[in-house]
């Protein structure tokens, strides 16, 4: 390997190490988020509240799109990501209602 190739290999490794750490953060963050949404689902079920809250969901999507712009992340991707999470949460809430 040349010096340039060695340096490129090290940079690649550093980027991949960072990606791996960020993936772990994402997984643990999602785990924590779903713990809270499970509690919300139980609370909604106990008080006979609907599993879905369209006004809250719309506000969350708008908030996430704004954050995406600030983070230089494609807001459409952020919106799809949040919609996926919201759909999963609603399924969990419906299970609590059963």
Protein model, in words:
This protein is an all-alpha fold. Helix content is 86%, strand content 0%.
Topology, element by element:
Blueprint: H1 3-46, H2 54-70, H3 75-97
Helix pairs in contact: 1-3, 2-3
Keywords:
single chain, 98 residues, mainly alpha, 86% helix
Gist?
The protein has 98 residues and is an all-alpha fold. The chain has helices at residues 3-46, 54-70, 75-97.
Mean pLDDT: 92
Radius of gyration, whole Å: 19 Å
- How are helices and strands ordered from N to C? HHH
Characterize the overall form: elongated
Strand count, sense and barrel status of the largest sheet are: none
Number of strands: 0
Provide the structure class: mainly alpha
Low-confidence stretches: none
Q: Could you give the distance between the termini?
A: 62 Å
> Beta-strand level of the residues, as a percent range?
under 5%
């Amino acid at each position: 390997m040349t010096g340039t190739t060695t340096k490129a290999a090290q940079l690649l490794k550093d980027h991949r190490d960072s990606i791996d750490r960020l993936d772990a953060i994402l997984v643990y963050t999602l785990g924590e988020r779903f713990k809270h949404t499970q509690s919300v689902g139980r609370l909604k079920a106990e008080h006979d509240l609907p599993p879905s809250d369209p006004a809250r969901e719309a506000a969350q999507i708008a908030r996430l799109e704004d954050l995406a712009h600030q983070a230089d992340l494609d807001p459409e991707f952020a919106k799809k990501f949040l919609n996926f999470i919201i759909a999963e949460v609603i399924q969990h809430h419906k299970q609590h209602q059963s």
